[in-house]
Amino acid sequence: MNRRRSSPADAHHDHDAHHGHPHDEAGGHHHGHDHAHGPGPGFPSLGSRPGIYLVSPSGAVPDPEVIARAREHLKAQGFHPVADRGALVRHERFAGTDDQRLAALARAITQKHPIVMATRGGYGLSRLLPRIDWKAMADSGKRFVGHSDFTFFQLALLASTGAVSYAGPMAAFDFGGKRVDDLTAAMFGETLRGELEILSFESEGSDPVDCRGILWGGNLAVLVSLLGTPYFPRTRGILFLEDVNEHPYRVERMLVQLAQAGVLARQKAIVLGSFTDYKLTPHDAGYDLGSVVRWLRREVRIPVVTGLPFGHVKTKATLPVGAKIGLATEAGMAYLVFPHGH
Known about the structure:
eight-stranded mixed β-sheet; globular; carboxypeptidase; alpha/beta; serine protease; hydrolase
């Protein structure tokens, strides 16, 4: 996996030269993404030592020390992390009651720090969706970051307002251990600062593609559970997916549902990240995740790209959900071209 940080001028030129794209807001191959809330204004510059507000909208944080370590690691990366006063609250399996977690999200958009990062995933955000003021979330101009259960928030925000958020690291999982993955930390910082324009990764056997579209997606199980609700985006773009603890047949079953609902056929491409922590059995008789990918290619007849460094894994990219990006494959490599300047 490679990242390219370059000047605003030659990021687009490089991509055009290799893939023939006209100049537009998605031309360039780096960790860049629009900070625009759909048609609204772009995000302001972060400046030096930007603040990160840590909030717990889903599952309870089991060990407060993890958040303390996360704050230290984020400080070492040049950020100023501050934990919401409810970040360590516990009610049953949740980080507080529904009212407490809603109040934490409300505080997150009125405090001064520009980045709002989820401490962890788990379960709990779906219960809150009808009670969240999505316009206020979008209008706040905050850069919301997380993955896993936080996919609920990101997709609902996109469906309700068109605002861009970030699928990326979380405090506990990615910054709360004894060591932090260097690439994850670097891509997070570069993306949030608008410095990363191109992300390239190995993608052997991927379908040929050279397109532009709105990047959207996240956790597959979360995304599928939103079908039929007002919080499912009606996006025709580039769909990225990942999951954890889901056997390949369950992954396929969810993809079948998306296909039969007409969602997959509307996309310009499907990009698959990591599907981890499942166990095969003798009954599978050779059926594995590769079987699912082969079925998917036969079924959808649109480009399928594999190898995206994203999911419940230590090394993960930070991706702009709702931004228009470029996607291309060439010679066993895939390239995500993010819009310049965030």
